[in-house]
């Protein structure tokens, strides 16, 4: 069967609003370490990791063996109505690592479900459906999660069970706060929060949900310390803080284990997903016991925290800590980030190289300003694939190349990928200039 056959079958039975990467979509059939192979036998260095999900890489013996041990018991699923040893052990680790005292953990299958669960407990705890969210954010595809998503491209319905008020993100490149000096941006964001509370709410707001680095939004983030400044205002009103760590968690930013730690604050709730399962469906919310215990009726996830996924999760987390992958993300991420900034400093088509650790974005614009250039971004994106490198796309305007490689990425692989990416950028820019 050829890839063309599979593509035709895909289009015949799956909805058109499910995107496929590349002008000629590829099927990945094998993987090892940080490399994958497509159905045509072409090998790629993977800098996107299944959307930042294959955090440890592919075909990792420790993870495979943990899953195989669980499979050999014959218990793939029991539901959470029974004790699950792997689930309890993983919850203990997550609670300990969360930084939240006396924490409780609820497991789900995806980041969307994790954010739904966080919103469920926050609205119950505060007896309010009023939510503060951040412009350019993404929190999932279900109604409530989509309702707090501030990115039109990912808002597939105008229906919303929540009353949402929107805050400025504090990004550096465009928007009202971008006009200010970095030192003034946090004060302006606090003023914005106070005005929103005074004008768009009735006061009894449930929570603020925010990403330390906006994932789908193109790895945009405000200044370090922004969350702490927001929290001072939130605390005046008893409003909870939810840190959406679906993409920033587990040491990916290099400098910290969680993205929120760059802000000098401890959230009431943290949502997590993606990397902790390394491809197995695993996510959840961890938070203060009094908040997690606010749900007034039975609520459980049939598959959330199932024996196989939590077996994988335990192996992933143990591997992550045993190999100090946070430090590796900082070290190898610096090779990529510094290398990209140096190699593109003379290109006015590159507006910004941003991010932290192994969470990096390159934003492309038209000459002479900050007007987004999604066409150039697509050209670079396709050129990377042609050169043997898989990257992602994102940003509010679809003009950001996103990179979230496995945290096991080596220095040599970082330099290899950097060379492919720089060549893709330069040849794509040259081709547009020549045209």
From TrEMBL:
Alphabetical UniProt keywords: Aminotransferase, Pyridoxal phosphate, Transferase
SUPFAM superfamilies documented for this protein: PLP-dependent transferases (SSF53383)
Annotated GO MF terms: transaminase activity
EC number(s) given by UniProt: 2.6.1.44
Presence of the UniProt keyword Transferase in the record: yes
Family: Belongs to the class-III pyridoxal-phosphate-dependent aminotransferase family.
Subunit structure: Homotetramer.
Name the record gives this protein: alanine--glyoxylate transaminase
């Amino acid at each position: 069967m050829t890839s063309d056959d599979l593509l035709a079958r895909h289009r015949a039975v799956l909805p058109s609003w499910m995107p496929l990467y590349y002008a000629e979509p590829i099927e990945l059939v094998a993987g090892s370490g940080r490399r994958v192979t497509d159905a045509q036998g072409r090998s790629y260095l993977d800098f996107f990791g299944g959307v930042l999900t294959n955090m440890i890489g592919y075909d990792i013996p420790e993870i495979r063996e943990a899953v195989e041990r669980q499979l050999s018991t014959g218990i793939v699923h029991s539901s959470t109505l029974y004790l699950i040893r792997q689930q309890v052990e993983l919850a203990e680790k997550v609670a300990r690592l969360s930084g939240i005292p006396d924490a409780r953990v609820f497991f789900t299958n995806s980041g969307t479900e994790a954010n739904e669960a966080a919103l469920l407990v926050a609205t119950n705890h505060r007896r309010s459906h009023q939510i503060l969210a951040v412009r350019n954010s993404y929190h999932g595809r279900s109604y409530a999660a989509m309702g707090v998503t501030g990115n039109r491209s990912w808002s597939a319905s105008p229906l919303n069970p929540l009353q949402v008020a929107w805050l400025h993100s504090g990004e550096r490149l465009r928007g009202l706060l971008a006009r200010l000096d970095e030192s003034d941006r946090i004060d302006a964001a606090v003023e914005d929060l106070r005005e929103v509370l005074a004008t768009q709410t009735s006061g009894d707001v449930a929570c603020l949900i925010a990403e330390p680095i906006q994932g789908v939004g193109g790895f945009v983030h405000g200044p370090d310390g922004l969350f702490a400044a927001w929290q001072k205002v939130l605390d005046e009103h008893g409003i909870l803080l939810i840190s959406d760590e679906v993409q920033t968690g587990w040491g990916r930013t290099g400098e910290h284990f969680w993205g929120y730690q760059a802000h000098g604050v401890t959230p009431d709730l943290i949502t997590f997903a993606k990397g902790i399962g390394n491809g197995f469906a695993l996510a959840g919310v961890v938070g203060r016991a009094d908040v997690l215990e606010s749900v007034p009726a039975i609520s459980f996830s049939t598959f959330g925290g199932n024996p196989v996924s939590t077996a994988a999760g335990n192996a992933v987390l143990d591997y992550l800590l045993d190999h100090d992958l946070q430090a590796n993300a900082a070290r190898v991420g610096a090779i990529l980030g510094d290398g990209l900034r140096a190699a593109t400093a003379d290109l006015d088509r590159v507006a910004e190289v941003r991010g932290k650790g192994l969470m990096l974005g390159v934003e492309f614009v038209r000459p002479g300003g900050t007007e987004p250039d999604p066409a150039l971004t697509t050209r670079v994106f396709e050129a990377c694939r042609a050169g043997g490198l898989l990257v992602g796309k994102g940003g509010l305007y679809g003009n950001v190349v996103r990179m979230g490689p496995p945290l096991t990425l080596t220095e040599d692989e970082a330099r290899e990928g950097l060379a492919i990416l720089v060549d893709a950028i330069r040849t794509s820019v040259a081709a547009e200039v020549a045209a």
